[in-house]
Amino acid sequence: MNMNDPFGRVGQKQQRSYESLRCSLQDAGVTTLSQAEAVLLGMRKRAIFILLLVALITAMAVLFFPAVSTLIIVLAVIILFWLLVTTLNGFSYVKRYMKDELSE
Hints:
By secondary structure, this protein is mainly α. It has three helices and no strands. The protein has one domain (9-102). Helix content is 82%, strand content 0%. Helix 2 (33-64) runs antiparallel to helix 3.
């Protein structure tokens, strides 16, 4: 029994998420390591694009609405934290797919 997850709910959710991503990758025809690496590269590019977009929107919003700049920055940090967690989970699932399914 894991004290951080005594009923195994987090582990089960992560397993379902991985299985969903695995099915999506298989449906998309990702069958080689190079294709999986291309997926990782695409994820990285999207994450960088979203980061730059959030930074630009935040900077413009702070310029136009200086009275609520603290709120705008807090919201931007929350969005960027969500982006980080989502991207890291995606990377770990794709790497697990590469290890489990493609490294035979």
